[in-house]
Design brief:
Shape: globular
Protein name: alpha-1,3-mannosyl-glycoprotein 2-beta-N-acetylglucosaminyltransferase
Strand order of the largest sheet: 1-4-3-2-7-11-9-12-10
Strand content: 15-25%
Enzyme class: transferase
InterPro entries: Glyco_trans_13, Glycosyltransferase_13, Nucleotide-diphossugar_trans
Structural class: alpha/beta
Largest sheet: 9 strands, mixed
Number of helices: 15
Cofactor: Mn(2+)
Distance between the termini: 52 Å
Main location: Golgi
CATH topology of one domain: Spore Coat Polysaccharide Biosynthesis Protein SpsA, Chain A
Length: 490
Amino acid sequence: MPLLFSSSSRSRRGRKVPIGFGLLALAVTLCIGIEIGVLWSEMMVGSSVQEDGARSSASFPESMPLGQEPDMRNYERERDELKKKVASLQEELAEMKNSLRKETKPNPITTPVPAANIRGSGSREERLHLETLKASIAASESSTPLIGVLVIACRRAQYLDRALTSFTKNRPDATHLPIVVSQDGHDPGVKQLLENSQWSSIVYSMRHEQGHGNGYEKLAQHYGWALGRMTPFLCSEVVFSVQDQAYHVAHAVIILEEDMEIAPDFFNYFLASLPLLKTDPKLYCVSAWNDNGYETAVHDPRMIYRTDFFPGLGWMLTSELWAEVRSRWPSGYWDEFMRRPDVRKGRHCLRPEISRSYTFGEEGQSQGQYFAAHLSRIKLNTDFVDFLSDTARPLRHVENEETFDRWLMNEMSSCVKVTLAAFDGELAGGQGKCFRIEYRDSMYHVFASRFGLMPDEKEGIRRTAYKGVLIFYFQKHRIFLDVNAGVEGL
């Protein structure tokens, strides 16, 4: 098994040292030193003035200027203020040290501290890996795009084994969809699994020196490091020639995790979506996940939608997006970062009606009651849909924003428009109807509870929503939940 990369930035004692914090601490230390120097100078001047004043008072008690004593008090007052400044700077330094040890979630609106060690070393192994992939593509005599499949792993060896079984079983082409497992830390079970002959010949691997912080922070740091190492896929467009034939590599990476399984048409869906993602400036990701994709809320495996909400959980990004976010990749809560308005920039993601990924990881960051109540209930698609078909063109309605907007308005205009109060009465007329129900922002939680949808929102965007519209099924009826009451268009 090719062990690709292992890297760490450490001090002599073996502990990772944040460079930004070191510079900040140095600056604060210099400020304290300057303030102490000024304080010492002022104290010496004050002492000298006091001595001179005392001598003048003894020799010429009647001729002492009236302003002499107030000047003495000014020096004392300035000395006290300088003491307070030094104490304040010392407190700030202590607070900075303490903040590094806290495990608090950063405000998603603010710019997170960039994660350290994500750029990769450009090592010989990394360069050889790129050459190997180029040679493999050339040998296949195909212009099929190359998409790296990055699997984020840590210490759940049994989960990883199950996940790799699903990934390789449903992968149509090992050459153009190479799997790279990135292990965070040194769990012996995961290491042994990747060295097993079953996987060593068909997947690549690399290892990240685990960072510090809580689980979400370690995960974000690992994500950033691993994406930074996927240089054969996340760099500028590469064109290379073999026997006078040019091969164009459309660089992208699909990100999966060690506790996921995928649908039979997972890779077909991503391969078909890649040209849209590369050419449409209003798209910034493709996801395999539907946050409201419960068994009772989905119906058509062919349907793909645009959404303003970043779903994650099996998603694809391009080199262009990585170039945007690489320098400011967060040190924690990477998914919240991807949902920020200054990252999304009004762009959309593609997402399926029926999920093409499923997470079975009851043990992990999203565990316990949340897994039982939500994640475990998401339906994984079992029917193969050929999204690459030229005749069916199942993605034609999402090719661009204008096309999707027209499609959505046409679909909603053909639905029965009802209020929530009248909805139950309309259900009596059989199955397979289409309803358009308008709602107010402040009342969304009532509608979400009624239909069993996820009630929360991130950065003002509700899960699966597109311009305020949520699309789902309820008792085999198609529902368009629309916030645009009384507004023409979307």
